[in-house]
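Continuing the batch. This is chain 6 of the set; chains 1 through 5 are on the previous pages. Same settings as before, nothing changed between runs. Recording input and output for traceability.
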Amino acid sequence: MTANPLLRVQFRVPFDQIRPEHVEPAIAELLADARTDIQAIVDAPGPRTFDNTLGALEAATERLEFAMTVVGHLESVATTPELRAAHNAVQGPVAEFFAQIPLDAGLWRALQEFSRTPEAAALTGARKRLLERTLDDFRRQGAELDPAGKARLAELSAELAQITTQFSEHVLDATNAYELWITDPADLAGLPQSAIDAARASAEAKGRPSAWRFTLQQPSFIPFVTYADSPELREQIWRAANICAEDGPYDNRELLRKILLLRREQAELLGFRDFADFVLKPRMARDGASARAFVDGLAARTEAAFAAEARDLHAFRRRLEGPDAPEPAPWDLAYYAEKQRRALYDFDDEALRPYFPVESVLKGLFDLVGDLYGVRVEPVDGFETWHPDVRTYAVRDGDALLGVFYADLFPREQKRSGAWMNALVTGRPDGRGGFGPHLGLICGNLTPPIGDRPALLTHDEVETIFHEFGHLLHHLLTRVELRSLAGTNVAWDFVELPSQIMENWCWERAALDRFARHVDTGAPIPDDLVKRMLSARNFRAASAMMRQLSFATVDLELHRGALPATPAEILARAREIMARFTPAPLPDDYAMVCRFGHLFSSPVAYAAGYYSYKWAEVLDADAFTRFQREGLFSRDVGLAFRRAILERGDSDDPAALFRAFMGRDPDPEALLRRAGLAAAA
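Output for chain 6:
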């Protein structure tokens, strides 16, 4: 019988060999092995040492975590009914196992015994931090609960894993279930040719070559609500997006309520006031009140400019359509804002698309990180993938192979929406001053190629690639010897610094000139177009800020304070909160939270932590000022960032890592200055 490909950590992951029927037997065996390894820590003879306690605990779950990462990844990019069923079947047992680790009285005793040894007292650096973090995490996760409390906590963890997975599946299925079919060319009025061509290709793939097909996938949805002249059709697709997974066979309303209740019970059982305080204790914000104060402070600094932008947009519509023109509805905002931007700056995003063929963008990105961090990115063969579109690349520093990554950039119906990065393998020290190679991946849902034409990206999509590659570098450049502290395993409100700082180069002319080349002529972006793009950068910056703050506020509100009793009341409360941050009244059936995967598609993820995007934006806006002062492509500054941030993982407090790069604490005004909002104080 062929060996199960999920049973061992493999740098060359055999994606072509993994089948749904491998999942349950592999996970069952890996769970048994992990339990045996943990019991061996408890039963270890002789004195407690780092290697037989913390080191052994690091190793005990590695194969299981690898297998679950691979299976979860495949379910998100190449799902089938069989794979989904297998993934769902193992979610609960695995979550229960991990929840039981800090509840194991013998293991807790072993950790405490080691913490009292002379070796533990002499620990420094990452090993000292791992001991401190492990002891804190065990206490926070219930190590000191009574037996009844421990049993209930394990039940909660298993149930949350299952329900959040179901929530995510509903979002994917509901997204795929919606199609807007257009057969009358008149209904395409206003749309750019790129959107029309993509819709025709989508229809042809569905066997209707004479029609146009639009979906809720971002490359289809965003152009439609931004450019389509038909308000009726804009409303139709906008409403579909904002009641997605709110009813029918993919109804997430009751799941949403259950997730919030289970999280609340989990936090209270562990002695925390609410889920936000539980989640944020090890993060930079420390508690829900601090996170909320941060969000409220940004909102207060933005409100005046936000109100002015809303007035200006309505006044613009009246100039277009007459003094009786109504205020824009939610499905009108992007449409009239785009027209207003064109009028003010003579700038259209679509004018940039021909300058961003995906191959040129990737080359420019790889050249940039080469200049900054001294690494070389090049295609590599010999790695099996899960789809023909997936590319593989190696990252090298001189002759040393730092890592390999997969890039899966375009949408498919079997693939969830959004963009993300995953770590697959974390290399270990090789004993010669280097590390074994790391393995990771980036995924996106960017505008795909059509026919023989290459994929032509929007500027926003270019930012997305740069963003996810920043996360990837955080993993591939890590030099932390301990897997659980390496790479992106950092505080959630710090993890976006390496990703978001990369977006800054997408706005610098000197960087754009390296990769923004016309697909047909090879010419750079004309000066006047770049000037108009930069002039328009902060157009409606307050509205963009308030949109993100609305997500952060509803997140914190739902995870703090009293929870409404019914799904309908939860949706009403979320709608009421978000209405304070939107320039147009939200319809009564607005249910965006039913598809808010950031918060509800896994047991934690961004739950009570969506504020992290803005928190990290403060860090990235400030950190980028050093590149602006000392050189956009400065190898010295790049290497300083690499050494202080990218290589260090969670080996030290993130505030200390930031100070190591900037020489001081973050400047909270940096983000407002970059957004052009500092004067609104």
